[in-house]
């Protein structure tokens, strides 16, 4: 598949060793796209940069861990 002009540049974490992970892409100045690398044509989420920062902070702090 050839990348189309204007198509988001999807990337994974540098810590990823496998291909089954979450990918992120800048969609515009304030929006980040999130998708599953195993299903790149599947559903995608779009969140603001601020919401993504908040989510990552909460994950790192353990606030979303299940008991």
TrEMBL record:
Q: Which InterPro entries match?
A: DUF397
Q: Where is the DUF397 domain?
A: 9-60
According to UniProt, the name of this protein is DUF397 domain-containing protein
Instruction: Give the species.
Output: Actinomadura violacea
